[in-house]
UniProtKB/TrEMBL annotation:
<keyword id="KW-0677">Repeat</keyword>
<dbReference type="InterPro" id="IPR011989">
    <property type="entry name" value="ARM-like"/>
</dbReference>
<dbReference type="InterPro" id="IPR052441">
    <property type="entry name" value="Armadillo-Ser/Thr_Kinase"/>
</dbReference>
<dbReference type="InterPro" id="IPR055164">
    <property type="entry name" value="EDR1/CTR1/ARMC3-like_pept-like"/>
</dbReference>
<feature type="domain" description="EDR1/CTR1/ARMC3-like peptidase-like">
    <location>
        <begin position="715"/>
        <end position="796"/>
    </location>
</feature>
<dbReference type="InterPro" id="IPR016024">
    <property type="entry name" value="ARM-type_fold"/>
</dbReference>
<protein>
    <submittedName>
        <fullName>Armadillo repeat-containing protein 3</fullName>
    </submittedName>
</protein>
<dbReference type="Pfam" id="PF14381">
    <property type="entry name" value="EDR1_CTR1_ARMC3_pept"/>
</dbReference>
């Protein structure tokens, strides 16, 4: 090697730049071609802004191409790198990072990652509020829209943001994407109950901002705006919301929207909003006031789209839910539209709307007449029979049919003429889940409607229908509860008629109804059964059937059920009132207004198992203890034709409400146990006492006495007179003998040997103790309209209680004068000293006017017993209840007359 060459520098007076030294430490620009997203993701860690921006832009472009690219980026763990860039100082870098994250958040894992932290939702909300960059608004709102599609995301947004005013501020944004994303956020929040409340109560809440988006050139924005309004308007119970909807002219905006034929693809959404709006009565009235009905009917005529036609007709039908709406609809000819859709060949869903409209329009009188004249019952029935239709359409047809039957009896007759009741019966038998319970209930309502017409009742009340109704009581499916309750209502209407009662008994209705009474799983069913029993007990035969079926025993043994079943106690009282023998046996008391009738019977001694008189005759057994029976029927002359005599006796027993079934009443007359023994003696007693009353008072006074009312001027005198009469009949051969019990035993034995049964007619007794005398007093008193309560105590004691009002009674004024004037004590006995024959004269001399006589009549139910009638010691004495002598009279006496 040669010597080194030394370069010499010649100075010329200026600082010389060493260019070689300047470029030695400088990195030359590198231009790379990145072909893989993984490489670009690595570049996101670069500190150079141009490189970072280029990488972010490239990745954002790659991810926006398709969903698969986003999945690839997620697998390459891009999220962590992008998250760091959303707060980058460079605006453009933030834009591309936000754009890429907005696209990545559609992946569930990315969305869950963002929701797990409490940082990101508040960050993007701040961006929407504080940032001025439109692109950042777009991407941030898109991220929030995607996050709130998840219910947890919506809840997190509500939790981390207390003020929703920023959403309505962003609706004013000039960028359509920001508006779209903001509407999506609002829609997502409305799906949450809490979110809906927050949106509606926001200070800047204004539906006019949403209405403005109806005119947007972008269909997606229009659709979102319509969806938001739909979600708001469907809350038809929210008065504040609907008031805001009306004040912001929401109805006018929607009707104007329907006028634009270019938006026909969105008309379905607008019509849906109007349908929900018309469910609010006030909004429906406003719709009518602004001419909405006329415009919607014109829309029905002009549209050729079947679905739009159906939706518009549904709006018109919704307006028929108010009286003003029905009147306006009829004025504009809605009936013709409904009939055309019903009778024409239309879509299946159209029948549901038209039938519902027909049912509602029957509530308007003029429309009901027009529908009746059109004979549309057959067409409605055809819709009901069409098994190809949905059950909702068939149920609407059943509703229309029921309304048509209610509005005019001609429609009922038309249904019967085409034998429509046969199809209704067929539907009733399709139980077990084959037919929805709503349709079964509707069928029962139709039958009830027809049965309420007196002229058509015999046609609809048949054995098959009654049997089908009673068969429902045996169904065990809980879903049939409403059907069972409806059947109870049907029976309460159909069993008013005699044929209905007979068919009810033939169908073994009482035995089946017992299943409902014992259904402990359903309180409404037990209550409906109890109410039905109350109504049916108006018939004495049915009442006796219920008692024979042990209804009363079951209800008394489950008395605590009255805490949850409202009609339980009332039903027990009705059963008692309908069957006085068992009431007296179980309660030991018949009140003043409990009237004994033929067939009433009393056991001389109460036994645990109370015998039913019908059972005694049916099984032909002789009870050990005597049974006293009331039967005021005279012995008729022997008929040569035994069958005619049996029919006549049966008719008489039915007329007198004897507690016997039809099977027993039709037994042969020769049977000792097949019929009640005729009691001509009791009949003679009653007639004889009536004659005594006429002789003592006057024929006018006796004849003007009505059931349920009593002339208080004659209570005490009649009680005294009747007491003496009863004692006279029950004292035996020697009235002076005080020991009656021994005579009574001998006397009863003689009677039983004579008639060969222990069922003894009351009139055959010539000897009576406390029970026998009190019973005879009660029987005669009931037939002369003298209110008397029969009470049974212990050890065979029984007594009569009467009500003597403490008012001014001229006939008895002197009798009660001393009693009314005494303050500290009361007499032990009240005795009327005036002769009965002087009463008419005293009445003539009295200053009472006819009005005073009428004013002395009081309802029996308003009286309260206050005296006991002595029938043993001093017959005719009135013993004040609670007095010492009254207590002695009601207690068991342990002494015996040794003379006997």
């Amino acid at each position: 090697m040669g010597p080194k060459h030394v370069k010499k520098c010649v100075s010329k007076g200026k600082t010389r730049v060493d260019r070689e030294q300047q470029t030695k430490n400088q990195f030359d620009p590198l231009r790379l071609e990145v072909k893989y997203p993984g490489t670009a993701i690595l570049l996101l860690q670069c500190q150079e802004k141009p490189v970072l921006l280029a990488a972010a832009a490239a990745l954002a472009k790659f991810g926006s191409k398709c969903q698969e690219n986003l999945e690839v980026l997620f697998d390459l763990e891009i999220v962590d790198s992008v998250i760091l860039l959303i707060t980058h100082e460079d605006l453009f870098t933030r834009r591309f990072a936000a754009k890429l994250l907005a696209e990545m958040v559609a992946i569930s894992n990315v969305r869950d990652f963002l929701l797990d932290a409490d940082y990101y939702i508040p960050h993007f909300i701040k961006v929407l509020i504080n940032e001025q960059d439109i692109f950042m608004h777009e991407f941030s709102s898109l991220i929030l829209a995607e996050m709130t599609k998840d219910m947890f995301g919506a809840a997190q947004l509500l939790k981390q943001c207390q003020d929703m005013n920023f959403l309505f501020e962003r609706l004013r944004s000039p960028d359509p994407d920001v508006k779209k994303n903001t509407m999506q956020i609002i829609y997502n929040l409305l799906q949450d109950p809490v979110g809906a409340k927050e949106i509606i109560e926001t200070k800047n809440f204004n539906m006019e901002l949403v209405y403005e988006l109806f005119n947007s050139p972008y269909t997606e924005i229009q659709k979102l705006a319509l969806d938001v309004v739909t979600d708001l308007v469907r809350r038809n119970k929210d008065d504040y919301l609907h008031d805001h909807f009306r004040r912001t002219n929401g109805l006018e905006v929607l009707l104007k929207f329907l006028d634009n034929i270019e938006w026909e693809d969105l008309h379905m959404d607008a019509l849906r909003i109007l349908r929900f709006a018309c469910d609010n009565p006030t909004t429906a009235e406003l719709f009518n006031d602004i001419g909405g009905i006329k415009q919607i009917l014109k829309y029905i005529e002009d549209t050729s789209h079947s679905k739009l036609f159906m939706e518009a007709l549904d709006i018109a039908v919704r307006l028929s839910h108010t009286s003003r709406g029905r009147k306006a609809l009829y004025t504009h000819g809605i009936v013709d539209y409904l009939l055309r859709t019903l009778m024409g060949n239309v879509q299946a869903n159209m029948y549901e709307i038209s039938c519902h409209g027909i049912g509602m329009m029957t509530l308007y009188n003029q429309a009901a007449k027009e529908l009746t004249a059109s004979d549309c019952v057959k067409h409605v029935l055809d819709v009901l029979k069409n098994e190809n239709l949905k059950f909702s359409a068939r149920q609407a047809a059943l509703f229309a049919l029921n309304q048509l039957l209610k509005c005019d009896v001609k429609n009922c007759q038309e249904l019967l003429d085409i034998h429509g009741q046969n199809y209704l019966l067929w539907l009733m038998k399709q139980t077990g889940g084959k037919v929805p319970v709503e349709i079964l209930v509707g069928v029962i309502e139709c039958i009830i409607t027809i049965a309420r017409n007196q002229a058509l009742r015999d046609t609809i009340i048949t054995g098959d229908i009654i049997d089908a109704i009673c068969a429902s009581f045996e169904l065990s499916c809980i879903s049939m509860n409403d059907f069972k309750i409806a059947c109870c209502k049907a029976l309460s209407t159909m069993c008013i008629e005699k044929i209905g009662k007979q068919e009810f008994l033939k169908a073994q209705g009482p035995e089946r109804l017992y299943n409902l009474l014992c259904d402990v799983k359903s309180i409404p069913i037990r209550n409906a059964a109890a109410q039905l029993i109350q109504l049916l007990c108006a018939d004495p035969v049915l009442a006796d059937t219920f008692v024979s079926a042990r209804y009363l025993n079951y209800m008394l043994n489950n008395r605590s059920t009255a805490r949850v079943v409202p009609s339980w106690d009332t039903c027990i009282e009705v059963l008692f009132d309908a069957h006085l023998p068992i009431k007296f046996a179980l309660t030991g008391r018949l009140s003043l207004h409990d009237i004994t009738r033929d067939g009433f019977y009393v056991l001389r001694r109460n036994v645990c198992a109370f015998p039913i008189l019908d059972d005694i005759f049916r099984f032909k057994f002789c009870p050990l203890e005597p049974i006293y029976v009331v039967n005021c029927i005279r012995e008729e002359p022997h008929e040569s034709n035994l069958e005619e005599g049996k029919q006549e006796n049966t008719h008489t027993n039915n007329k007198r409400n004897v507690f016997l079934s039809q099977a027993i009443l039709h037994l042969t007359m020769d049977s000792k146990f097949g019929r009640l023994q005729c009691d001509s003696y009791l009949y003679d007693y009653i007639e004889l006492f009536k004659c005594k009353l006429i002789a003592a008072e006057s024929k006018d006074v006796v004849s003007k006495t009505t059931q349920g009312f009593v002339n208080i001027n004659y209570v005490a005198s009649r009680a005294k007179m009747l007491a003496k009469f009863v004692v006279q009949q029950m004292s035996g051969p020697d009235p002076l003998i005080r020991c009656v019990d021994h005579q009574l035993e001998i006397h009863l034995k003689e009677i039983k040997e004579s008639i060969e049964t222990s069922v003894i007619p009351l009139g055959m007794l010539r000897v009576g103790s406390y029970l026998e005398r009190a019973l005879l007093f009660k029987v005669i008193a009931d037939r002369v309209h003298l209110p008397a309560a029969l009470v049974r105590g212990q050890y065979g004691k029984a007594w009569i209680e009467i009500a003597v009002p403490e008012v001014r009674v001229p006939i008895e004024e002197e009798t009660f004068h001393c009693y009314l004037k005494r303050d500290l004590s009361c007499p032990e006995v009240i005795t009327i000293n005036e002769p009965l024959k002087e009463y008419p004269q005293k009445c003539e001399d009295s200053s009472l006017t006819p009005e005073d006589h009428r004013s002395s009549n009081f309802p029996t139910k308003l009286l309260k017993p206050n005296f006991i009638v002595d029938l043993m010691d001093c017959p005719g004495d009135l013993l004040p209840i609670g007095s010492n002598r009254a207590r002695l009279y009601c207690e068991k006496k342990l002494v015996c007359d040794t003379v006997c």
